């Protein structure tokens, strides 16, 4: 499908489609059964003819610094490598309640679009450089049942600029 859903499951999902329309960013999307793991996304990848990214919401031990790390689905996450690449102290997965309050999503629905909810600019968006080599960016629309395909350059150059989240790029 190339248009917004008829009804929305969350405030974030509605903001996602309103923002894409406003920015004139085209997309393709599919509705699915609940998909939470990267294994769940294999069929979605085939349907949309792209590779889903892995999006992790991380924080420091004091829970005062937050990172939305976007990497390729096949790479294992190593906190030490991530922290070393940014020159910061070790990070861990942020608690589910912080992910919901800051990004407006539940476990399994972490998405770059969550920064629409981050009005205080608490979250640093960090891309694995390998993600930026892909023409297409596959991610959740803020739910665990809606997934979409967007041009990667549109996410980085248009969407993130619009949200005032300038990404950092690291190599792992």
Automatic annotation (TrEMBL):
Name recorded for this polypeptide: Prolyl-tRNA synthetase associated domain-containing protein
Residue span(s) of domain YbaK/aminoacyl-tRNA synthetase-associated: 37-155
Higher taxonomy: Bacteria, Bacillati, Bacillota, Bacilli, Bacillales
SUPFAM superfamilies assigned: YbaK/ProRS associated domain (SSF55826)
Source organism superkingdom: Bacteria
Species per Swiss-Prot/TrEMBL record: Metabacillus herbersteinensis
Protein family according to the UniProt entry: Belongs to the PRORSD1 family.
InterPro entries from the UniProt entry: ProX/PRXD1, YbaK/aa-tRNA-synt-asso_dom_sf, YbaK/aa-tRNA-synth-assoc-dom
Alphabetized PANTHER family for the sequence: PROLYL-TRNA SYNTHETASE ASSOCIATED DOMAIN-CONTAINING PROTEIN 1-RELATED (PTHR31423:SF3), YBAK DOMAIN-CONTAINING PROTEIN (PTHR31423)
Pfam families according to UniProt: tRNA_edit
